[in-house]
Amino acid sequence: MGHAKKDAVFQPLNIAVLTVSDTRTLETDTSGDTLQQCVTDAGHALWWREIKPDCIYQLRSVVSQWIAQPEVHIILVTGGTGFTARDTTPEALTPLFDKQVEGYGELFRQISYDEIGTSTIQSRAVAGVANRTVIFAMPGSPKACKTAWEKIIREQLDARHRPCNFVEMVMPNVNTACGSRS
User: Fold this and answer.
1) Are 88 and 59 in contact, with CB atoms under 8 Å apart?
2) What does the pLDDT look like over 74-111, one tens digit per residue?
3) What angle do CA 91, 73, 152 make, to 5 degrees?
4) Which of 2, 69, 152, 182 has minimal CB crowding within 10 Å?
5) DSSP one-letter code for 142
6) Which residues pair with 51 in a beta bridge?
7) pTM for the full model?
8) Domains in the chain, start-ordered, CATH in brackets?
9) Is the torsion defined by CA of 52, 33, 132, 122 positive or negative?
10) Cβ of 115: how many Cβ atoms within 10 Å?
11) Helix (H) or strand (E) segment spanning residue 170
């Protein structure tokens, strides 16, 4: 587990949730529901929630629009990370990244191994940074969303988590270990 910085304060972030699915609606989107609940329970703001079909160009379009909005700090994407012909989330997102967060996918698969065994190799969970917005993509099951949020993402979106977190990068004027950002 991480270490808390005693003088840091929690800073709520604006988080958008995108479900990638050809069949789900807002009424049947249990993975999106799970992420929305995780976001609000942690004290962050749900900025927007949307469902898009697994189409590279539609996914790139909506994510590009969100990363162009300075008020969007984090984007959580669920679904489309497998190996079927319709699973194109990594291909849609990675060209948008200024930097890829390599450790996220590796850590997700390591943690998932304890939950689902070798089936975890079929997850192409990816994360990256685009225009100071952090994007996390995870499989489309509620359990995978909960694993990603509780065991990886939540701490990284809390300014009190040390030695580092993503809040320092996405929020202007936050003091960091390497100086202040304006």
Assistant:
1) yes
2) 999 999 898 988 899 999 999 999 999 999 999 999 99
3) 70
4) 182
5) H
6) 19
7) 0.91
8) 3-170 (3.40.980.10)
9) negative
10) 12
11) helix 167-170
* Residues making up the chain, counted from first to last: 182
Phi, psi values for residue 156, rounded to 5°: -75, -10
Strands 3-4 and 161-162: antiparallel
- Spatial CA neighbour of 82 closest among 125, 112, 118: 125
pLDDT, tens only, 59-75:
999 999 999 999 999 99
Spatial distance between the Cα atoms of 80 and 57, rounded to a whole number of angstroms: 13
- Where are the extended beta strands (E) located within 84-160? 99-100, 126-130, 133-138
Query: Would you say 93 and 128 are in contact if contact means Cβ atoms under 8 Å apart?
Result: yes
Distances (CA, A) of 178 to 9, 68, 164, 175, 181: 18, 26, 10, 8, 9
* Residue entry with tokens 């701490």: 155
Residue 119: count other Cβ atoms within 10 Å of its Cβ: 10
- CA 118, 124, 69 angle in degrees (round to 5)? 150
* Residue in the block written with tokens 């929020």: 171
Give the pLDDT confidence of 110-135 residue by residue, as tens digits: 999 999 989 888 899 999 999 999 99
